[in-house]
Amino acid sequence: MTAPAAGLSLPAGGLGARAGSGPRTRPGMWLGRRWRRAPRPAAMRGSVNSAVRRMGMPAAERAARRMTMYGLFVTFGMVLCGRGFAYLGIAPINLYISEITIITMVIFSPTRTYLAGLLRQAGRAGRLHLLAVAMMVFFCYGVAETIRGLFDGGSSTTLLKSLQLYYYPVLLSFGMWMGVRDPKIFSKLVWALAWGNATYGIAYAVFLNKLQVTVPGNPGAPLFDLGLTNAAMAILGLVVYHRRSKWLIPLVLLNVAVLFGHQIRAEWLALIVSLVIYCVLTRQYRRLAAGLGVILVFATVITIINVKIPGPTDRGGAVRPTDVIGRAVGSVDPELASQFTSADRVEGANGTAQFRQAWWHGIWHSATSDPTFLFFGHGYGFNLQTLAPPGNVDTTVRSPHNIIFYSIGYTGFVGVALMALLFYAIARQLWTVYKRTGNPVGLALMALMVTASQFEPFLESPFGAAACYLTLGMCLAPLMRLGGGDGRRLPARLERALAGMAHDRPALDLEPAPIPAQRRYASRGGSVPGVETLPEPGSSGPESPPLRRPAALSAGAPRPGRR
Question: Which pLDDT tens digit goes with each residue over 156-166?
Answer without folding.
Answer: 877 888 888 99
